[in-house]
Design brief:
The complex is a heterodimer. By secondary structure, chain A is mainly beta. Chain A has strands spanning about 5, 10-15, 20-25, 30-40, 45-50, 55-60, 65-75, 75-80, 90-95, 105-110, 115. In chain B, about 0% of the residues lie in helices and about 55% in strands. Classes of the chains: A mainly beta, B mainly beta.
Chain lengths: ~120, ~110
């Protein structure tokens, strides 16, 4: 089946630095990818929808200048957490929809990236 | 707004025991309902889904029925195996925006030999 891969799976950084997380669709093209975050014992929350060749669409309450999303190709979306702080420590997961008409194809998820900000 | 609530884990069972993981939802309209499973070190994988009331989704011995009257989509399996140990997520997608998913907090299942 279709595969979505994230890198890195774990990252530890110092407060104030920026961290980039990559999301790749390995065997299909994805015009739209999605970024979620999950706090401990809480639900995955949709952060933004990443659109190839255009600006991302952010959910209410998500700072677009804090979480920069770039979807430069049909197989790669990146999430950059800028000037990270300990409260940004979380589990970030991406997903992409494969095939289907009008976006009805199955949604595939990456394995997630655990960010820890010291 | 839309939301999904599922039972907290971890759930620990012996092999061949019966499994139920409860999931209830709040939604406007007629959402589609899903169960995703995440094995250690892997991404979420679609386990089963149901797109309308009274539909039953089933896969790998797991099943769940879309109950509109109780707004529930409980996951069941008659006889669990050690290999079923994973985190299970209940989710819904809005009827007018199938790209927008709402997830439960996940339930970790541990199956002991």
């Amino acid at each position: 089946g279709a595969v979505v891969s994230q890198h890195p799976s774990r990252v530890i950084c110092k407060s104030g630095t920026s961290v980039k997380i990559e999301c790749r669709s390995l065997d299909f093209q994805a015009t739209t990818m999605f970024w979620y975050r999950q706090f401990p014992k809480q639900s995955l929350m949709l952060m933004a929808t990443s659109n190839e060749g255009s600006k991302a669409t952010y959910e209410q309450g998500v700072e677009k200048d804090k979480f920069l999303i770039n979807h430069a190709s049909l197989t790669l979306s990146t999430l950059t957490v800028t000037s990270a702080h300990p409260e940004d420590s979380s589990f970030y997961i991406c997903s992409a929809r494969a095939g289907g008409t009008a976006g009805t194809g199955e949604l595939f998820f990456g394995e997630g990236s655990r960010l820890t900000v010291l | 707004g839309d939301s999904v609530t599922q039972m907290e884990g971890p759930v620990t069972l012996s092999e061949e025991a019966f499994l139920t993981i409860n999931c209830t939802y709040t939604a406007t309209g007629y959402p589609s309902l899903f169960w995703y499973v995440q094995y250690p070190g892997e991404g979420l994988q679609l386990l089963l889904k149901a797109t309308k009331a009274d539909d039953k989704g089933s896969n790998k011995g797991f099943e769940a029925t879309y109950r509109k009257e109780t707004t529930s989509f409980h996951l069941e399996k008659g006889s669990v195996q050690v290999s079923d140990s994973a985190v299970y997520f209940c989710a819904l997608s809005e009827s007018d925006n199938f790209n927008k998913f709402y997830f439960g907090s996940g339930t970790k299942l541990n199956v002991k030999p």
